[in-house]
Automatic annotation (TrEMBL):
<dbReference type="InterPro" id="IPR016161">
    <property type="entry name" value="Ald_DH/histidinol_DH"/>
</dbReference>
<feature type="domain" description="Aldehyde dehydrogenase">
    <location>
        <begin position="28"/>
        <end position="490"/>
    </location>
</feature>
<dbReference type="InterPro" id="IPR015590">
    <property type="entry name" value="Aldehyde_DH_dom"/>
</dbReference>
<keyword id="KW-0520">NAD</keyword>
<dbReference type="GO" id="GO:0004030">
    <property type="term" value="F:aldehyde dehydrogenase [NAD(P)+] activity"/>
</dbReference>
<dbReference type="InterPro" id="IPR029510">
    <property type="entry name" value="Ald_DH_CS_GLU"/>
</dbReference>
<dbReference type="InterPro" id="IPR016163">
    <property type="entry name" value="Ald_DH_C"/>
</dbReference>
<feature type="active site">
    <location>
        <position position="267"/>
    </location>
</feature>
<comment type="subunit">
    <text>Homotetramer.</text>
</comment>
<dbReference type="Pfam" id="PF00171">
    <property type="entry name" value="Aldedh"/>
</dbReference>
<keyword id="KW-0560">Oxidoreductase</keyword>
<dbReference type="InterPro" id="IPR016162">
    <property type="entry name" value="Ald_DH_N"/>
</dbReference>
<protein>
    <recommendedName>
        <fullName>Aldehyde dehydrogenase 1</fullName>
    </recommendedName>
</protein>
<comment type="similarity">
    <text>Belongs to the aldehyde dehydrogenase family.</text>
</comment>
Amino acid sequence: MLQSKDSSEANFKIPNIKFTKLFINGEFVDSVSGNTFETIDPRNEEVIARIAEGNKYDVDLAVKAAREAFDNGPWPRLPPKERRRIMLKFAHLVLEHVEEIAALDAMDAGKLFSDVKTSEVPNVAEVLCYYAGAADKIHGTTLKMSSEIQGYTLLEPIGVVGHIIPWNFPSQVFAYKVAPALAAGCTMVVKPAEQTPLSALYYAYLAKQAGIPDGVINVVTGFGHTAGAALSSHMDVDKISFTGSTEVGRLIMQAAATSNLKPVSLELGGKSPFIVFDDVDVDQVAPLAFAGAIYNKGEVCVAGSRLFIQEGIYDKFVKKLEEIAKTWVVGDPFDPNTRHGPQVDKKQFARVLSYIEHGKREGATLLTGGNALDRKGYFIEPTIFINVTDDMKIAKEEIFGPVLSVMKFKTVEEVIKRANCTKYGLAAGVMTNNLNIANTVSRSIRAGVIWINCYFGLDPDCPFGGYKSSGFERDLGMEGLHKYLQVKSIATPIYNSPW
Ligand code: ADP
């Protein structure tokens, strides 16, 4: 592993932080309590800015604004083509500010600036465009009723939506949730993660510039157990859409159940298998397997953190992984040579290191890495364990760090069984040139997204979400829109119909 320069050497001008207050009813406002919290730069553990700390009272105000905008405001009532026009303008404004937003996420989350700039923020615009195009294609069906009744369905916006957003993809997940809800005609309160509040506030500002009416998008920054819990248990929120850990997903479902029974959608954790068969080109697939687990310092819900390698190529593949680790650059996310930056915060940093210690204690062999970097900030080496068994903690639990567990297998049947032996079911990778094996394995794995001979391939048109304890319902695609719609059936008697 190599180390990169820090950002002063990388010579990047960090933008000023423009937005630090809550965004409620079209205005940036202080929290009711006047409290603020620090958002920390994980590269150097310094304070980036103090952010308004919203709690129950601020959530109440934000929900009230969203309720008013839904019940009496123009947004749900606009002709869909108007919603489309405004959403396209929003997308356009996002593209005009790509660099500034990317810098915010890179600083707040320790994400690679170049990735956020060239991929994630442009993807926000793509997703907005995709759902802008869907806004005027929302329609129900005419029913062929059995008796002398005619019927049809109407798809109506579900109402006030609470979006609870994680810190690992602050921009992309914002778009996955906000864009379809806007297209559906909903109004909303967004609760970004406390580690990464900056870009959501920036998007709120751009939404207003684009012409999205006041009260339609509100952003309440603050902590999960206060602001997040107030949103998920609110009696006047009609739907919660959440991405985050399985533990918090469970709390959100409980809060929804014990309040007003609002429906929830959950996109949760994973421990995804990345399966490599003997027939692949090792030089081509090993970098994909490495990045599948280590990309974004492993802070990826679909990380392919369980690598199953068939026995015929096992030794060669492991050697290649070791070589890749040697040239992998860890350091400042603003340096274009860096391949991964710091973990998001001190808590995650400590958590990942404790999993690495567990791996060693459980008897797995450390192939590469295993340490924090000897510098300020939350940097961890890319870490590969071999001789991992299925029952080890590092093979079973989501680590959310740059840690890859490598296992060997013999047969197709065996690997399907072992890959499915997890409480999670978010994603899987299948690497083979044998079409029959690819088909069998992809249909046998119980997970929401299967990548054959690629990894991380996502598109606004591709529904994304999990099986089992990885959650339910989908972001993206038309499924990602329909969860913000209610189906209303309308029936009326019909007399003397010729049909
Ligand atoms: P962690 O930060 O421990 O990894 P998550 O990744 O699940 O937790 O957090 C994702 C989002 O859920 C964040 O916006 C966080 O503030 C929020 N959250 C955390 N706890 C709760 C809770 N009890 N109720 C609602 N939201 C919560």
